[in-house]
Amino acid sequence: MNIKNWRYKKLHSAFLIAWVSAGILFGVWFSLFLPVFNIGIVFISLCLLVIIFTKQKAYMFVLALVAGLIFGLWRGGAEILQLSTVQQFYNQKVVLTGKIIEDVSVGKKKEKQLRLKEVTINSKKAYGQFWVTTQSGVDIKRSDKVTVEGKLKEGFGSFNGSVSFAKIIKVERIKGEDTARDVRDWFAANVREVVKEPQASLGIGFLTGQRSTLPDSLDEQLRIVGLTHIVVASGYNLTILVRFARRLFVRYSKYWATVSASVMICGFVLVTGFSPSMSRAALVTGLSLAAWYYGRKIHPLVLLLFAAAITVLINPSFLWGDIGWALSFTAFAGVMLLAPLLLHYFWGSQKPRGLSQILVETTSAQIATLPIIALMFGKYSLLALPANLLVLPFVPLAMVLTFVAGIFW
Question: What is the pTM of this model?
Answer without folding.
Answer: 0.82
